[in-house]
Design a protein that fits this description.
With 156 residues, this protein is mainly alpha-helical. It has one domain. The chain has six helices and no strands. The longest helix is centred in the middle third of the chain and has 23 residues. It is globular, with a radius of gyration of 16 Å.
Length: 156
């Protein structure tokens, strides 16, 4: 939860409270969806690590897209990528860690914050517009469809 407090606080300021909640929930959902699709049947997973990885993915994309605007974003990008590499090494080397939740959350966080920054402006704090709102809704729809497909084809 320390990571949520530190990185989450930064992202909440960067994208605004509502978009942060949306980002967190989508990342957590995507981590769960990838567990449903890729983990062995009957796998037990707990925690919010998929959502936390989503916040890290979002922070990396946000810093990357803003790297030309200020030095802070360039420095932040390097630091976040370093932390991601360390955490991914731990994810894949430690036993009993749900890599599916981590990767699902990471990818969803990156894609979601990119969608939030659509429309030509790099300030995601603005309210949802048509383009970014539809893009984020599309991400949720894809996750729901994948879940429905997996449940319908479940043979466990």
């Amino acid at each position: 939860m320390w990571a949520l407090w530190v990185v989450g606080g930064y992202m909440e300021v960067a994208v605004g409270r509502l978009k942060f909640v949306v980002l967190y929930l989508i990342s957590g959902l995507a981590g769960s969806v990838l567990v449903l699709v890729a983990a062995p049947v009957g796998s037990l997973v707990v925690g919010a690590s998929g959502a936390i990885f989503g916040i890290f993915g979002a922070l990396a994309v946000h810093a990357f897209l803003n790297r030309g605007r200020d030095f802070q974003s360039r420095a932040l990008l390097g630091n976040v990528l370093f932390l991601l590499v360390i955490n991914l090494m731990f994810t894949f080397s430690a036993g009993r860690v749900s890599w599916q939740a981590h990767i699902g959350g990471l990818l969803a966080g990156a894609v979601t914050v990119f969608a939030m920054m659509l429309g030509g402006r790099k300030d995601p704090r603005r309210p949802f517009g048509t383009i970014d709102g539809l893009a984020v809704a599309g991400i949720v729809l894809v996750l729901v469809v994948i879940t429905a497909w997996r449940v319908a084809t479940f043979s466990g």
